[in-house]
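Run log // design_07
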């Protein structure tokens, strides 16, 4: 499967290079006793779910023997990035999960490092954006939100599990702009992780949560929240009742990739072996069950191809952020 055109405008080329059948080179099959997953945010967010879901699939399919997890919030993900670099010699069995924000936050200077300071191992999945409200919210449709926003942007508080100017904010701004609103006036409340952002929505601190479909599914299925719109081109199998912005006439299609990085001292051969492992697990029934449960899309993109993709995304996102006023 290749995404020929998953995004429009400045995002059109962001996912162009992703493919689900790319070879991980000539890396030989390797035996993995344990993987330690480093998670740059708190429990309940997209990074947390991706790391734990990947570990679960690897364990249940018998591809690894043990998995451990470490949540390290702080600095918009920068604390974990600095940690894996500073302790690189001790991180020979560590994979750090990350996603589009590693590019966004590097561009905005939230942290001084970039993906170039790490070893990109593989992009593995994509998660479409979702706009979520409480079950008792006055908003029944996305268009009602847009009407209120155009009337008075300060009446409509968006939130997300990432910093101002980062991905959740950027996707909301893009959606508002495509609906004819002034994206620069969008009120955005930043939380340190997706779980905290969801708690803020449920407590009434904010009206609309900008997040990933995977982060909203369980609460939507429990009837605690409603998904008013998603950024997929077509309705998602895991959330069939959630309309797309496209079907409502708004030219917004975006998927946030997620993947894994290693310490900068990891050898190229070991990076290839880990990349192959992450590709191989996607062929298992255990992975497919977890993928369906979370509403993920497989987007496998290993080591050197992943690096090239990140360079391309950096250029494309930088251009869009300047257009929206997030970068000078």
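design_07 sequence
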């Amino acid at each position: 499967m290749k995404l020929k055109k998953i995004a429009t405008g400045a995002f059109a080329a962001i996912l162009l290079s992703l493919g689900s059948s790319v070879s991980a080179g000539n890396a030989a099959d390797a035996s993995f006793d344990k993987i330690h997953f480093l998670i740059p945010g708190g429990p309940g967010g997209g990074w947390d779910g991706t790391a734990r879901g990947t570990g679960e699939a690897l364990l249940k399919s018998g591809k690894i023997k043990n998995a451990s997890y470490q949540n390290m919030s702080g600095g918009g993900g920068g604390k974990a990035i600095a940690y894996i670099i500073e302790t690189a010699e001790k991180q020979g069995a560590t994979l750090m999960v990350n996603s589009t924000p590693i590019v966004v936050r590097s561009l905005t200077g939230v942290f001084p490092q970039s993906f170039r300071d790490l070893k990109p191992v593989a992009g593995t999945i994509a998660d479409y954006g979702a706009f979520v409200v409480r079950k008792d919210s006055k908003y029944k449709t996305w268009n009602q939100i847009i009407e209120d926003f155009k009337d008075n942007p300060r009446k409509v508080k968006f939130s997300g599990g990432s910093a101002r100017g980062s991905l959740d904010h950027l996707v909301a701004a893009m959606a508002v702009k495509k609906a004819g609103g002034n994206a620069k006036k969008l009120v955005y409340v930043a939380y340190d992780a997706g779980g905290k952002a969801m708690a803020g929505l449920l407590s009434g601190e904010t009206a609309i949560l900008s997040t990933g479909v995977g982060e909203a599914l369980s609460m939507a299925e429990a009837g605690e929240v409603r998904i008013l719109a998603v950024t997929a081109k077509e309705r998602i199998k895991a959330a069939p009742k959630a309309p797309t912005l496209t079907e409502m006439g708004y030219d917004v299609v975006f998927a946030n990739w997620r993947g894994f990085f290693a310490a900068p001292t990891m050898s190229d051969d070991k990076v290839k072996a880990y990349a192959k492992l992450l590709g191989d697990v996607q062929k298992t029934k255990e992975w497919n069950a977890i993928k369906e449960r979370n509403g993920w899309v497989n987007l496998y993109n290993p080591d050197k191809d992943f690096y090239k993709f990140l360079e391309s995304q950096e250029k494309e996102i930088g251009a869009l952020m300047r257009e929206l006023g997030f970068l000078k």
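Strands lie at 32-39, 64-71, 94-99, 119-134, 157-160, 187-190, 208-212, 225-230, 255-262, 297-302.
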